[in-house]
UniProtKB/TrEMBL annotation, chain A:
The keyword Transmembrane applies. It comes from Cyclopterus lumpus (Lumpsucker). Keywords: Endoplasmic reticulum, Membrane, Transmembrane, Transmembrane helix. One of its GO terms (biological process) is protein N-linked glycosylation. This is Dolichyl-diphosphooligosaccharide--protein glycosyltransferase subunit DAD1.
Automatic annotation (TrEMBL), chain B:
The lineage of its organism: Eukaryota, Metazoa, Chordata, Craniata, Vertebrata. It holds the Pfam family Ribophorin_II_3rd. It comes from Cyclopterus lumpus (Lumpsucker). Subunit of the oligosaccharyl transferase (OST) complex that catalyzes the initial transfer of a defined glycan (Glc(3)Man(9)GlcNAc(2) in eukaryotes) from the lipid carrier dolichol-pyrophosphate to an asparagine residue within an Asn-X-Ser/Thr consensus motif in nascent polypeptide chains, the first step in protein N-glycosylation. N-glycosylation occurs cotranslationally and the complex associates with the Sec61 complex at the channel-forming translocon complex that mediates protein translocation across the endoplasmic reticulum (ER). All subunits are required for a maximal enzyme activity. Residues 18-250 form the Ribophorin II N-terminal domain. Residues 508-606 form the Ribophorin II C-terminal domain. Belongs to the SWP1 family. This is Dolichyl-diphosphooligosaccharide--protein glycosyltransferase subunit 2.
Amino acid sequence: MSNSVISVISRFLEEYTTTTPNKLKVVDSYLFYILLTGALQFLYCLLVGTFPFNSFLSGFISCVGAFILGVCLRIQINPQNKGDFLSISPERAFADFLFAHTVLHLVVMNFIG
Amino acid sequence: LLALAGAQALTPAHYLSLPDVARLQNLLSQQFTGLDSAYYSVVGLSKLGATIPDHEGVCQFLKSQLDPMSIDSLFFAAETSQAISGCEIPVSNETRDILLAAVSEDSTMTQIHRAVSALSSLGLPLASQEVVGALTGRINKEDNVMAGGGVQGTAARLSQQTELGGILEEIEDLTARLDDLGGIYLQFEEGLEATALFVTAAYSLSDHVDMEPPLKEDQVIQLVNSIFSKKSWDSLAEAFSVASAAAALSNNRFHVPVIVSALGPATLLVTDVMSQPLALANVLVESAYSVASKSVILSHASFTLNDGVFELNFMSSRPASGYYQFAVAVTGDTRLVGNHVELKVKVSTEVVVNNMDLSVVDKDQSIGTKTTRVDYPSKGKSSFTADSHQNFAMAFQLVDVNTGVELTPHQTFVKLHNQKTGQEVVFVAEPDSKNLYKFELDIGERKSEFNSISGTYSLHLIVGDATLENPILWNVADVVLKFVDEEAPVAIQPKTLYVPKPEIQHLFREPEKKPPTVVSNTFTALILSPLLLLLILWLKLGANISNFSFTPSTILFHVGHAAMLGLMYVYWTHLNMFQTLKYLAIIGSVTFLAGNRMLAQIAVKRYVP
């Protein structure tokens, strides 16, 4: 059982490193960073407590929101998905990404206290 | 014994008592300041039936003050001269012409009234039809209450044969304007003087034409209330109007309001509104019934007139004590108004305590009771002892001294007073079906009321009622009570209601406990570490900025974007949402335009046809 899991994972990693364009890997590493940051914040909250709760929430939501927006960007600039996003060029996707982030940061800054 | 109170139904609430009449006369007896004050004083006093001193002097005054050209002056002088004897006001043809000329539609109602009155008082001829014409014409133009009074007063001076139908109708319309206040008062909104003058004129006219004025009995009583409720008058004119109204209401052909006042037990004074006794009155009790049992005790019993007051010998019928309602009627004259009066009579009596038996009974009834009789008002010789196993019992009767009937007064209390601590405990004694009072004290059960304090208590019986003349407070005996679980006798503190209460300390919300700085600093560093990881990954992937073109739009975009991020930080530290949005709008639009340009350029570069 664990054998097959390990083989699946190694196969996945192999395919990933070979077939994914560089641009997407850049975005993926950004997403990984966001994920780590969010997880660490959550860990802090579990260990130390929820004071101040609003700050924790804003930080965590910032990570979650950024992750989601990053995923959206990745989907939109993936050349394999070009058929689904005919009217949206990568530049347009990036512009949307920036605009959505502005709104997210505005809300997060408001809530951080 | 009897006591009288109150009068319900619609009977006059206000009238001129003898002191009021005296006060009114006093006000009207002031020194004259002019013809008008002379008129009010002299005529007013004559209406009240008072004597006017020094007729000669008054006459001289009138003649000296008279202005033969003024209608008002002539009116005052003429009317006043009629009230005193032997005074003739000289009249010239000119005077007569002036007065006659005033009788027209174009003069005010007051002028018409005064001119006609002056003509009539001076004995000069006047044409009644002309007057009626002038009045009818004038009343259409002057549709107020004072005019109405003027019309009536004028019409009363005309000859008997004059056709006054139209005027009488107008009067009826005016009476509809009276305001009913609470069902007790009826008056014109123009005030007391107008109401009083109107009433005077109305009765003067109705007597003159021998037709009842358009006022119902209730309205007459309400008018009486309004006119005589004011006991001090602001002006001579007001006092005069009240005096005129009083005279009119005591002496006219149709309505004479009756004032019934109670002078004492079963003694009534029956007068008119000016406190003059009514000559022809007959007072009788139509029915009298007991309030409690509703049984009629008197029917059609007459009061006897005794030296100006009406008395009834009620006590001879030996009524039981309590409250009675009397319906009294004043008869003898068809003009009497408000002559049915309801009076409340209280018959009180003396009470005596009979057969007071005290005993101490064992709860389990094993030991026979020992009853001691105590006679009022002496005190029981020996004191009684009772403990928690026993009951203390009292039985007695309350009897009316006069009739021998058992009474059940409102207040029958048994009070136990601890002589050492001053504590008092009060219980109620209840009568049984045979009106025998019984009181039982279960020592064990009631110990909480005594605070379980044993000792000698003095026993008092308290009897009281509104109809009893001799309330009783009788120290019957002393009782020694023994309680189990006795507490040390504590002097009873008066209830401390009004001392300052203990101060409330407010606890402000404690700030939450913060984690130690070391921990939070560690985690801050920890959070920032993935950034490092990101940079390393990007480097490994070969992410670079080699394509960076130094076009203005690119630079502007990056600057703008950095500014936006900087704005976020400033928002966190200094600004509020509104300011931030304002700056964001400015920077954002710049950044957007530049960014648009920049991305377009990149797209163009990327596009490889």
